[in-house]
Amino acid sequence: MVPGDRAAAALRAVRDAAEAHDAGGAHGVLVTSMRMPDAPQLPEAVRGRTLLSIEALAADEAALAWLDGVRAAAEPERDEVGPTTQLAHALAATEPTEPSPSLGASVALARLDDATIDALLAWRDLPEQAGIVGVSLRLLGGALDAPPRPAFGSLAGARWLAMGLAPLLPGASREAAAASLGGSRPCWRPRRRRG
Questions:
Q1: I want to staple 4 with a disulfide (CB 3.0 to 4.6 A). Which of 45, 50, 86, 178 is the partner?
Q2: Paired residues of 192 in beta bridges
Q3: pLDDT tens profile 58-81
Q4: Terminal alpha carbon distance of the chain
C-alpha cells in the first residue's frame, strides 16, 4: 500500500518490473488507485485518503522478488508478504457482505506508458472524480493466455485491463457516476487495444 503522492513512481515501477518478469506467467498483478471518501464508517487510517494498492500473487515468494524494485521506487506505507489461501485472499479484499449497486467501466490497453499513467493520476485528482472509489489495472498475458478460452470478446493484443468502479451509495446520482466514469476515456484512448 503506497500513499497517493508516491503513486506515479510506484505504478511505473510495477509496470516495468511486472512486465519484465512475466514471461512465464508466474504471477498475477493487480494495482488499484483508491480514493476513499471521508465517511465515518471507514477506518481512520484510510478515511479521506488516496492510496495505491499493489497486489501480487505467485506460486512462491521467490517469484515476487521483482517487488523489491517497487519498494525502492516508492516506499510502501504497508507491506505484507506471505502464504495465503483462496479464503484468506477473499477476506483480505474486505468486500461488503451485503451487495450494493454500482456502475463500472473497463477497457483493454495495448500498453501502459508514462503518458497513460500521468493522465490517469491527474484525472483521479479532479474533484468531480471523487465518486469513483477504485480504478484498477490488471496485468494480462502469461498464464492467462494459455489455453485460449472461447468468449464473447477477446483480449488478444491487450497487456493491461483497466477497470473503474463508482458505488451508488444512498443519495448518489447515477448520472454523475456515469459521467465521471466516461471522463476516463481520454486517459485510455491513445493506448486502447484495437480489434
A1: 50
A2: 109
A3: 888 888 888 999 999 999 999 998
A4: 34
